[in-house]
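ARCHIVE CARD
Drawer: 12
Card no.: 0347
Subject: one protein chain, sequence and derived structure
Cross-reference: see card 0346
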Amino acid sequence: MKKLAVFVSGGGTNLQAIIDAVAAGTLTNVEIAAVFSSSRKAYALERAANAGIPGFCFVPKEYETREAFTDAMLVKLAELQIDMIALAGYMVVLDPKVVEAYQNRVVNIHPSLIPAFCGKGNYGIHVHENALARGVKLAGATTHLIDCGTDTGPIVMQKAIPVLDDDTPETLQKRVMKECEHIILPQTLQLLADERLVVEGPCVRILPE
């Protein structure tokens, strides 16, 4: 059983998708051992409490330095014996020390088909605003392993949906969440827990069952 920490900053819909997948038995060999939030006001903490999952707040501005913030998180992760991390709408850039400590064991979900609409400034609703402004015909989500760049780590899974003529950034965001993010994030965590991901340079190979 792999111990998972889910990092959040807001509403926690992807956290809920992971919780639901574990409860339904579609995500196995994974225990959601903790939720780490960068905000004390994040509704994701309530979702965690409702599911009986311990929640911890690590708010960068509450620490004298970014190094102190990072070290505090690493101490708690080690204390909880965390095996893998999911970034589920986490709005803080991970320090290289965390990336190194959990190399190829941190999964991020991004609401676009990387390399489209990713990197600096492309987060949350802005991704969908930019996609619609460009007139794309397909939108979607990507799971990838974290490296020290921004949305540059090896891609694991992608899922696409058509953009509708009457889509707004808000409706597109909701559909991408429901039809893409909430599906491929638990699936990717299953692959990671089952040790079926092999990183080969900038790419990921998925081993057969």
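Annotation on reverse: The chain has a mean pLDDT of 97. The CA atoms of residues 159 and 180 lie 6 Å apart.
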